[in-house]
Amino acid sequence: MAEKSGADILIEALTDLGVEVVFGYPGGAVLPIYDALFKQDRIKHILVRHEQAATHAAEGYARSTGKPGVVLVTSGPGATNAVTGITDALMDSIPMIVITGQVPTGLIGTDAFQEADTVGITRHCTKHNYLVKDPASLCSVIHEAFYIATSGRPGPVVIDIPKDVQVASATYAKPAAIQHKTYRPQTDPDKAKIQEAVDMIAAAERPVFYTGGGIINSGPEASRLLRELAELTGAPVTSTLMGLGAFPASSDQWLGMLGMHGTYEANWAMNKADLIIALGARFDDRVTGRLDAFAPNSRKVHIDIDRSSVNKIVRVDLPIIADVGRALAAMVDCWKERQHPKPDLTEWFGRIEGWRQVGCLKYEDKADVIMPQQAICSLYEATKSRAPIITTEVGQHQMWAAQHFDFEAPNKWLTSGGLGTMGYGLPAAIGAQLGNPDDLVIDIAGEASIQMNIQELGTATQYRLPVKIFILNNEYMGMVRQWQELTYQSRYSESYSDALPDFVKLAEAYGWKGIRIETRGELEDGIQAMLDYDGPVVVDCRVAKLANCFPMIPSGAAHTEMLLQAAEVSGEMDDEAKALV
Amino acid sequence: MHIKEETRQRHTLAVIVDNEPGILARIAGLFTARGYNIESLTVSEITEDKSVSRITIVTSASEHVMEQIHSQLERLVPVHKVKDLTVLGPHVERELALVKVAGTGDHRIEALRLAEVYRARVVDATIASFVFEVTGGSEKIDKFVELMGEVGLVEVARTGIVAISRGAEAA
After folding, report:
1. Residue A225 contacts residue A243 (beta carbons within 8 Å)
2. Is residue B1 part of a domain?
3. A51 part of the active site
4. Residues A3, A40, A44, A113: which is the catalytic one?
5. For residue B26, which residues of chain A lie inside 8 Å, CB to CB?
6. Domain at B149, CATH number
7. For A273-318, where are the alpha helices, taking DSSP H only?
8. What is the ipTM metric for this complex?
9. Given A74, A271, A500, B139, which residue has the most CB atoms within 10 angstroms?
10. Based on the structure, what is the number of domains in chain B?
């Protein structure tokens, strides 16, 4: 068989694996790969402006399409700049392959120019990583890396390729289906346990489905099956931040998001439930609140593909290790097979209705100032018919979007949940737009977060991507300020966004359209102008400066100790409370 | 404010891994990254083709954390199997130490006598020193080293614990 260069093997393997888009940034240690890219036209390369953005763009692409995101960066700073996005993908279980250049094998360990110990640095922020020293193993490593990144609980995989390995030659043969020596994710559920779970649901008086990002990762079929199971069982459904969209917000059974900024009804339902069915969710501290008060009188079923997620935070009664989609399919079949009638949950829904009546998300739409919640609601009303893809940065705007923007379908909501990475939203929107060229893609941002990867305006311009950025500009790192009000007697230490750029002029400088919305009267028209423009738009929406995000469960408090409004917030907390994240 | 600690129990784990570069860093790093403690760690190849290694880890943790350590280790891609020997039943733990003792006269004679009691072998001798090889459970080695301290201990090298289950079956 004819031999090829390592760089050509990489391109051929990526092509065989169905890769259409690579997000990257060239540099010395990846020049052979960039030359190989230049000579082909099957893989499209998207040139970002910073390597961190390449990783978030790949995440946005992956989360919105279900395909793995691919990143290509150089050695040293190229790799270290990618670390934040790699960690983000690990925390949110996003399938991603990051190819990093490395100094030639002979120079490894000599502190060579642009050398960094990439496999060492990324060992604990990847699902797995490789340093390929032998060109003959390149082909199998790339195929294996894709298999590991996309199977089981998805995650990022780094392949570090020294420059001489990119140049040296070897043979390439597309391998048959991968049978890994040690890595065998368990995807099929134990039938007996499924039956036990189904019978528990049938017998429950106050069941709640607590769903998470695992349902999105499992694919659209898992979302469909969740709807079917919810229909069969009649049980109410809540979701984590990462799982929004898996269940339609328009359903009567929908409780809204749970957790720190979740709804009153979702958190009270969790607290009073007699059965919690956790589906692809991992009991994050943002979800549970104070652990000894979390769903205290419930039995718990936990379906997760990752064994280490089980009993990590909350002890459960029935763990089922499986792909959540397959488990849902088995539960639907088993429910029908056992001919369980639809349980009568009238009393349970009666109590839920009482909690709903609290109207925890209500806010006052004011005439003299734009309330940030109103801005999200107006954006939702203007765009819902187009089922847009929404990305966010991190902070108050992210929580307001999660609370007030309703989703009917999966893969429409892209946010940095686990790591909470400011600067995620714009590059993620770019990745999502590339994967979904006909969709409306909006980054709901804050004026502080957007500046963390603002350079990516240029990337959208270059590839004619009509991404919209909707900035809720309150001139504060609002969530930091909110916590300072809650915990530190409003000592606003470094949380004011001083010296802000003129976002309209900044947009124009990059060839975008810039729109400023300053008064309540301009809100709807401004949003319409954004939607009417056939190209990328930055909207600088000036909102109430001191609005806070409620409801809120303070760190370390129980679900039932939820704060509903600002008046309940005051004073200074003790050291125990200050130490909580 | 004070940080609370949980009660811990000692466990001995046998971790069977693919012998790839970086595997030890992966395992040791997992323990530091997640705040688990390592009391002893040994590693050696166990197959003829040198493709598989057995890592013996002694750790102490609460039952809840122990379950996490187990599943976190199993989650690593190159890990074949994790066996918690402490949970699986009776097992044998051994350690080997090389103990250098220098001295003359009575000290020298006493060192030799103690070595005999502990079934330590002399693997090197000069007019003024011995190197003893002693194997056994960690407590025995501790005690031997402590006694040698009285008669001219110079330095100690210990392997750390290796362990295997009792009986005919593999754990």
Report:
1. no
2. no
3. yes
4. A113
5. 123
6. 3.30.70.1150
7. 285-288
8. 0.91
9. A74
10. 2
Instruction: Quote the pLDDT of residue A442.
Output: 98
CB contact at 8 A, B1 and A579: yes
Question: How many helices, marked H, and strands, marked E, lie in chain B?
Answer: 5, 9
The greatest distance separating any two alpha carbons of chain A, rounded to the nearest whole angstrom, comes to 75
Domain boundary among B64, B88, B112: B88
Amino acid sitting at position A56: H
Q: Which of A124, A128, A307 sits opposite B33 (nearest CB)?
A: A124
In a domain, B2, yes or no: no
What does the pLDDT profile of chain A (581 residues) look like in tens digits?
Answer: 789 999 999 999 999 999 999 999 999 999 999 999 999 999 999 999 999 999 999 999 999 999 999 999 999 999 999 999 999 999 999 999 999 999 999 999 999 999 999 999 999 999 999 999 999 999 999 999 999 999 999 999 999 999 999 999 999 998 888 889 899 999 999 999 999 999 999 999 999 999 999 999 999 999 999 999 999 999 999 999 999 999 999 999 999 999 999 999 999 999 999 999 999 999 999 999 999 999 999 999 999 999 999 999 999 999 999 999 999 999 999 999 999 999 999 999 999 999 999 999 999 999 999 999 999 999 999 999 999 999 999 999 999 999 999 999 999 999 999 999 999 999 999 999 999 999 999 999 999 999 999 999 999 999 999 999 999 999 999 999 999 998 899 999 999 999 999 999 999 999 999 999 999 999 999 999 999 999 999 999 999 999 999 999 988 899 999 999 866 655 677 777 777 77
The amino acid occupying position A313 is: I
Backbone angles phi, psi at A147, to 5 degrees: -65, -45
- A312 is an active site residue: no
- What CA dihedral angle connects A286, A291, A295 and A299, to 10 degrees? 120
Domain that holds residue B82: 9-88
What are the E-state strand segments in B49-168? 52-61, 79-84, 91-102, 121-126, 129-136, 153-158, 162-165
Identify the active-site residue in A114, A186, A195, A462. A114
Domain assignment of residue B79, yes or no:
yes
| Domains of chain A with CATH codes | 4-170 (3.40.50.970), 191-356 (3.40.50.1220), 372-549 (3.40.50.970)
Determine the residue among B77, B79, B81, B82 to mutate to test chain A binding: the one whose Cβ has the most chain A Cβ atoms within 10 Å: B77
Contact A182 B77 (CB under 8 A): yes
Based on the fold, state whether residues B73 and B99 are members of the same structural domain: no
Chain B residue numbers with beta carbons less than 8 Å from the beta carbon of A181 are 18, 80
For A369-394, the three-class secondary structure string (H helix, E strand, C coil) is CCCHHHHHHHHHHHHHHHCCEEEECC
Chain A residues near residue B34 by CB distance under 8 angstroms: none
Length of chain A: 581
Domain boundary among B88, B123, B142: B88
The question of whether A479 is a catalytic residue gets the answer yes
Rounded to the nearest 10 degrees, what angle do helices A31-38 and A6-16 cross at?
60
The C-alpha torsion from B22 through B23 and B24 to B25, rounded to 10°, is 50
Catalytic-labelled residue, pool A4, A127, A163, A300: A163
Q: Are A204 and A317 in contact (CB under 8 A)?
A: no
Q: Does the N-terminal peptide bond of residue A551 adopt cis geometry, omega within 30 degrees of 0?
A: yes
Nearest CA distance, A365 vs chain B (angstrom) = 43
Q: Tell me: do B119 and B151 sit in the same domain.
A: yes
